[in-house]
Write a structure and sequence with these properties.
By secondary structure, this protein is an alpha/beta fold. The protein contains 10 helices and 12 strands. The strands form 2 sheets. The chain has a 7-stranded mixed beta sheet, with helices on both faces. Strands 1-5-4-3-2 form a 5-stranded antiparallel beta sheet.
């Protein structure tokens, strides 16, 4: 249970962030990460500092409970020592694992689903067919509101040529292809002939099958076989998480300036927030998230949509 948060009422939240970063820099990797924000990384764990209106937020994370307690103790002792002009009350929340974090509260989720443009009969039928044919694996399909977001992003970007890595039963492919112009092109990459066979009839019924070039095989091989010059306006990655770093590295050079890269599941159910999760997928997603944020070729924003969606626009 390695995540814990404290909300501290104060008139001086930014001042405390600066003091903690300055003082702890002698003992840990302490740095500012934005206006009124900072991170302190110890060997045993980390603490993020966020200043808000009359409130300081502390977010502690560690690989185990003992390490978490150590991070909390160090931060609390130093913070209370700095508070010479006011009395601070610091209480940490009960520790909980990252996969218990609610990215979107159910009441918000229900409201936003009810206030998006409806997907329409064809996409609803594809979602139903996917549930019937794939059972529990149907959770790999993007939700209706994320499909609507993909369509909007394609239209807003004016994309004509697109890449999708991870087709499953074709819901996201259909959303992207519908948003392309009549002469648009979508390179759709997947390893499953069985699941993509569900997609084809729906692409045909939507009248977009001529825009979709489905390639069955390892997506990295498909991407590496493409010419290296920029030729694509839009890309969507929603496939095996361990290969996200490779997909991203292959796609970015092939995007035109202004091209948009969209990555799904960048929070992995909250597990990327929690250092206790050290599976290959967790480490790969943390690596690609960190690399994207510092890639000078891109402008990047991460959104709390579904399981986390990152938008990266090539400069």
């Amino acid at each position: 249970m390695p995540l814990s948060t404290a909300f501290i009422a104060t008139e001086r939240p930014e001042r405390y962030v600066k003091q903690l970063i300055s003082h702890m820099g002698h003992k840990a990797d302490a740095k500012h990460t934005g206006v009124g924000r900072g991170t302190i990384a110890f060997r045993s764990g980390t603490c993020s500092l966020v200043s808000s209106a009359q409130k300081l937020i502390l977010i502690a994370a560690a690989a185990d409970l003992d390490s978490l307690n150590g991070v909390q103790d160090v931060i609390a002792r130093h913070l209370l020592r700095f508070a010479t002009q006011e009395e601070l009350h610091l209480t940490w929340s009960d520790p909980k694992p990252g996969d218990a974090v609610e990215i979107v509260a159910p009441v918000v989720d229900d409201y936003l689903r009810a206030h998006c443009t409806p997907p329409g009969e064809l996409l609803d039928k594809l979602a139903e067919t996917t549930r019937e044919a794939t059972g529990r694996a149907a959770g790999m399909q993007v939700a209706a509101d994320e499909g609507a977001l993909l369509q909007m992003l394609v239209r807003l970007s004016g994309a004509r040529r697109a890449i999708e890595v991870g087709v499953f039963t074709g819901y996201s492919s259909l959303c992207i292809a519908r948003a392309l112009p009549a002469d648009g092109y979508l390179l759709a990459c997947d390893v499953s002939s069985e699941w993509t066979a569900i997609a084809r009839p729906y692409w045909e019924r939507a009248g977009v099958d001529d825009r979709i070039d489905l390639k069955i095989g390892p997506a990295l091989d498909t991407l590496r076989a493409l010419p290296e010059e920029p030729a694509f306006d839009f890309a969507f990655i929603d496939a095996d998480k361990g290969n996200y770093p490779g997909y991203y590295q292959e796609i970015v050079p092939r995007l035109v300036p202004g091209g948009l890269l969209v990555l799904d599941n960048v929070l992995l159910g909250g597990r990327v927030l929690d250092p206790a999760f050290q599976g290959d997928d967790h480490r790969a997603m943390r690596r690609v998230n960190e690399t994207l944020a510092h890639d000078e070729r891109l402008d990047v924003v991460m959104l709390p949509v579904r399981d986390g969606v990152t938008l990266a626009r090539k400069r």
